[in-house]
Amino acid sequence: MTDLTALDPLGWEALKGALNQRVIIDRVRFVPSRKNRVWIIETNVRPVVVKRSLTGKCGNEFELLLRARNARLDTPLPLAKSGDYLVSEFVPGETCDVLINQMFSIAASEGIGRWLARFHTGLSDDGRYWIMSDAVPANFILSGEDIYGLDLEDSAIGDPLEDVGRMAASMLDTDPLFTPLKFDLCRRMIRSYERQSHVDIIEDVRPFISKHLQLDAKNRPLFRRILMGAAKSLEKGWPALA
């Protein structure tokens, strides 16, 4: 039986090409991913992340990472692309889903808002905006005092409010769900986005949050009634507790 958690020869070739020298492997760690296969590989040169794309979007992510770096955004440095494999630098830190859902981090919430605003303005093309599409806390890392955005493979031209709405919905509908503290963190993220972008979106983004809560409800039958109720409420306005 094939071990799907093991890096195959094509992956090792991609790693060698990225580092452009013989390396000593200290440790290989398989990281669970919703859509791809990901390994963190520690070498005598530097730790790297090797991702095998199962979505056919490796090239898109490589290009977007380069553009984001050129726009001075904090993202992992892409080192090489080979077939379906992308090799990038390893960014140490804590993922923002843990920081927000367990530690209720204001720094993570506001940092994500700033990062999204810089992404939308920094990668705009003649009035068209690139959006992350999969903007959820798990795709951000707090490294030191800086927020890094990860997983840009789904990035496409779109409405920036989709990203902010997706992020807000993900913050609100993860455990603990819809608490006053979660609403506060959500609004802090949005206000931080506004300060960075100089655009007032606090009311315009509500329909987008509602939309993504309804989309999440379709995939979470046990929470469908709660999510749909919150979505309908947000269509009318922000709750008083927020």
Task: Tell me what you see in this structure.
By secondary structure, the protein is of the alpha+beta class. It folds into 2 domains: 9-89, Phosphorylase Kinase, domain 1; 94-236, Transferase(Phosphotransferase) domain 1 (Transferase(Phosphotransferase), domain 1, Orthogonal Bundle), CATH 1.10.510.10. It has 8 helices and 10 strands. The protein has helices at 9-19, 58-70, 96-101, 106-122, 160-172, 180-197, 206-219, 224-236, and strands at 25-31, 37-43, 48-52, 78-82, 85-89, 94-95, 129-131, 140-143, 146-149, 156-158. The strands form 3 sheets. A 5-stranded antiparallel β-sheet has the order 1-2-3-5-4, sandwiched between helices. It has a 3-stranded antiparallel β-sheet with strand order 6-8-9. A two-stranded antiparallel sheet has the order 7-10. A hairpin with a 5-residue loop joins strand 1 (25-31) and strand 2 (37-43). The longest helix is centred in the last third of the chain and has 18 residues, at 180-197. The model has no long low-confidence stretch (mean pLDDT 94).
